[in-house]
Structure formats: C-alpha cells, structure tokens
Design a protein that fits this description.
Low-confidence stretches: none
Largest sheet: none
Radius of gyration: 25 Å
Mean pLDDT: 81
Number of strands: 0
Order of helices and strands: HH
Oligomer: single chain
Structural class: mainly alpha
Distance between the termini: 78 Å
Number of helices: 2
Shape: rod-shaped
Strand content: under 5%
Length: 54
C-alpha cells in the first residue's frame, strides 16, 4: 500500500514540476505583431467602412 502511495506522490510532483516549467517558458516567449502599415486587410476594411458611410 505504501508503494502505491509513494509512486502516486512522485507522479504528482513530476506532473506539477513539468506544468510549472512549461508555463514559465510560455511567459518568456516574445510574441510579435505585424505593423499596421503592412496589413492589406486593414486597408480593405477602411475602404468598405468609408463606402458604407456615404
């Protein structure tokens, strides 16, 4: 009975440790965003908005 308990605790600790490591790596990842000047969809949306207003 104690062996099952010890193995279960070890598995829980390993899973918790892996979750903490992957979460900390995810927060360190730098996300980038394309500049608005190079976005062709934004230009099309502005044209459609202007046409709807007229």
């Amino acid at each position: 009975m104690y062996t099952i308990f010890v193995v279960s605790i070890i598995i829980i600790i390993v899973v918790l440790l892996l979750a903490v490591i992957t979460t900390s790596k995810a927060y360190k990842f730098k996300h980038t965003v394309d500049p608005l000047d190079d976005n062709p969809y934004l230009k099309n949306e502005n044209n459609v908005d202007n046409e709807n207003r007229q």
